[in-house]
């Protein structure tokens, strides 16, 4: 970890988790299906990752892709997932929920935070879909979230940089603002220097070809708009190291 900055890497495999730690990540956000923005990982994935890494592992609690307006049954799943990942070694949690009019579902979040205690909790990028980010930040502070992950309510953290800077100023240390979304070696220094943040979030992934020799190109296991059947995305040690070096040199 670069002194003064903490790099969180989002991962959805054991290989990516190991690579992220090896490259200098200070914390992992563990998910499944990063193609969908990350959903709750399996207990098996959490347990094996915890066997191989020493840095903190924050586990995503998100029952499906799509919006952040949840049904009562989906909330039941979220509660049960929190209980399970807590009992299997998660060091923290990442979650969020909204109302139909684009505000934080404070009642539900309060309930989920109660189930999560004593683990620290990050409010994820549901923040980027809210009606009023300034009001939302105050709600998250009052609820007791440790940090908020945000692209500044824009398509990437670079485009959202002006809002990220304003949120850091508004937070005044009461909650950590962590930029994420499209962070690469090309824009990290500008984001760090322009925002005043102390943490950042990235995937640092590269494409990796499948080891399969026999391939049936006529069949796809998912919908038409999915990752290539014989291609993998894995956290890249060299990319993580490069981002870490940039952060260190930004001090």
UniProtKB/TrEMBL annotation:
GO cellular component, one term: cytoplasm
InterPro entries associated with the record: CutC-like (IPR005627), CutC-like_dom_sf (IPR036822)
SUPFAM superfamilies associated with the record: CutC-like
GO molecular function per UniProt: copper ion binding
Transmembrane segments: none
A Pfam family recorded for this sequence: CutC
Subcellular location: Cytoplasm; Nucleus
Keywords assigned by UniProt, alphabetized: Copper, Cytoplasm, Metal-binding, Nucleus
Family, as annotated: Belongs to the CutC family.
Subunit relationships: Homotetramer.
Function recorded in the entry: May play a role in copper homeostasis. Can bind one Cu(1+) per subunit.
Protein name: Copper homeostasis protein cutC homolog
Organism this protein belongs to: Hucho hucho
High-level lineage: Eukaryota, Metazoa, Chordata, Craniata, Vertebrata
